Amino acid sequence: MRHGKKINHLGRTSSHRKAMLSNMATSLILHKRISTTLAKAKALKTYVEPLITRSKEDSTNSRRLVFSYLQSKEAVSELFREVSLKIADRPGGYTRILKTGNRLGDNADMCILELVDYNETMLSSKEPTKAKATRRRRSPKKTTEEVAPSAESHEEVTSEEKIEKKPKRTPKKEQETESAPEQSQKEETEESKE
């Protein structure tokens, strides 16, 4: 069982693993993105992010420490000159893993590991967009100036309409008695016309 064992040995000896991670970190810093397996990308992420954090402070000591891990002057100078300026205000999470599917030969999980601040397509898509308005049944709220006069006039109209529109309710017995004289009057008028 591998309880508490956080380091993925990647099936390699210690010296081979360190050399491989050093070369991959150099490639990542120089090219800003690399394609590799998911297991190697996760191991590389834990290897390279502390180095990028160290590059925020440009001193001789931090350059020497980073060089001891990378063993490449070009990568160290690129890291301290360009990358550290772009990530200066970012508090961590300098890399991103994008899964790309499985490899044909051995079906290994493949991915792209990239520096977050160098992906132009994702940075351009993060333009400020308007928040989507929620759908409501009511009309949008008006300002207080518009609401006050219209509310008073609306109340007046509705109260008058209610008075006019409400029919008088009468019990059924009264309706029958009222309708009987009306029918007799209609018959009388018809007879007189003839």
Give structural notes.
This protein has helices at residues 14-31, 38-54, 60-70, 73-86, 120-125, 144-165, 172-193, and strands at residues 33-37, 95-102, 109-115. With 194 residues, it is mostly helical. It has a domain at 14-119: 50s Ribosomal Protein L17, Chain: A (Alpha-Beta Complex), CATH 3.90.1030. It has a three-stranded antiparallel sheet. Helix 1 (14-31) crosses helix 4 and helix 3 crosses helix 4. The chain is elongated, with a radius of gyration of 40 Å. The model has no long low-confidence stretch (mean pLDDT 82).
Walk me through the topology.
Elements: H1 14-31, E1 33-37, H2 38-54, H3 60-70, H4 73-86, E2 95-102, E3 109-115, H5 120-125, H6 144-165, H7 172-193
Antiparallel strand pairs: 1-3, 2-3
Helix pairs in contact: 1-2, 1-4, 3-4
Keywords:
three-stranded antiparallel beta sheet; 7 helices; mainly alpha
What does this entry show, briefly?
The protein is mainly alpha-helical and 194 residues long. It has helices spanning 14-31, 38-54, 60-70, 73-86, 120-125, 144-165, 172-193; strands spanning 33-37, 95-102, 109-115.
User: Could you tell me the strand content as a percent range?
Assistant: 5-15%
Helix-strand pattern, N to C? HEHHHEEHHH
Query: Which structural class do you get from the secondary structure elements?
Result: mainly alpha
Q: Any idea what the radius of gyration is?
A: 40 Å
Ends distance: 114 Å
Q: Would you tell me which CATH topology of the domain at 14-119 applies? A: 50s Ribosomal Protein L17, Chain: A
Strand order of the largest sheet: 1-3-2
Q: Please work out how many helical segments DSSP would assign.
A: 7
**Total E-strand runs:** 3
So what's the overall shape? elongated
Which sheet architecture does the biggest sheet show? 3 strands, antiparallel
Mean pLDDT: 82
Low-confidence stretches: none
> What is the name of the CATH superfamily of the domain at 14-119?
Ribosomal protein L17
Helix content: 55-70%
Tell me the CATH architecture of the domain at 14-119: Alpha-Beta Complex
CATH class of the domain at 14-119: Alpha Beta
